[in-house]
Fold:
Amino acid sequence: MSLNFDFYATLVVIVLVLLLGFFITDKIKFLKDYNIPEPVVGGAIASIIILLIYSFGNISIKFDNSFKDPLMLAFFASIGLLADFSSLKKGGKKLIIFLFVISGLLITQNIIGIGVASVMGQNPLIGMLGGSITMSGGHGTGAAWANEFIKAPYFFTPATEVAIASATFGLIAGGIIGGPVARFLINKYNLKTKQEDNLSHEAILNFEEPQKEKLITPTSFIKSLALIGLCLLIGSYLSSWIKSSTGFTLPTFVYCLFVGVVLRNVLSISKVHQVFDREVSVLGNVSLSLFLTFALMTVNLWELVSLALPILVILIFQVITMILYSIFITFKFCGKDYDAAVLAAGHCGFGLGATPTAMVNMQAVTNHYGPSHMAFIIVPLCGAFFIDIINALIINAFLYLPFFAH
Structure:
């Protein structure tokens, strides 16, 4: 027996599952402390329920997935629209160095993932999904690339399950190791926070008080929605045109992100329109939450069982690598000072999970040892924008290796 949900029914189920995730996360301290995303919690519970219904009731549940890709693309478009290049000068030389540092980790993570998967006789795509795609990319990037790996020419059917499991593990690990790494560095080198800082008070508020409320109006909301829609339109067209004319392929979300970057900065320079950051962020987060909820509630859990051991081994190697990398590479090359220690904690957060985890790591450190305004400028820029572009290029380069010949 098959139970089919149309567009409206699917939307209602997704929202209810997401609300369930919010409720459970709020009630369980562990989930809240380690910043487990509500879509992951709700979606995982829903997928288990759907599995039980199929196993014991022999009822197959199918959802309408027509808005799955638009939601994913809207999230990445919002990242691009938030990238204001005028903020780069605030990070200075240390921002450039940090970009090279995180790029090195992306390459290292993929080498480790592919290497361990190959040694264990597994599909190298498992190594990619357990590499920079989910470790530095998080749930959003993991789900987006899994969506690509499911289709031709890869046909790796358990891609979504592997991506979600890896991203969730990384998110937890990133939240656990960040604080201890920073404390180790601060105590070992007797580091102190800087008493003076040349960054403006406005910059400090933007990054260290992210919960500050701003007014959203219907008119401004429509403008922000139109910008995201324009990114999806142009990005999708560019993806199809470049693929058909050159044969070069990148996931559509990369083009939408690029279009967002160009659009944001052209509007900024020409002073035609000022992008409302918090509003675009709200739209992006809503899109991501709905997309992840749908992705998780439709995963096939049986596909994951046979791959559990290889994934776990890969992820353990990734955590060990992240600890060593943040201490011996991130901290060293970013100046070996207090800001570098806070950056190391932040790198643990988005190097294994997501930018929100990085921010929580840094806030835990700065609440105890004192402020690091430079870190709160650099990490959001790198973790929420630059890393997605660099990661997409590095991933695409790895996919041209002989391992993935098709």
Remarks:
- The CA atoms of residues 37 and 66 lie 23 Å apart.
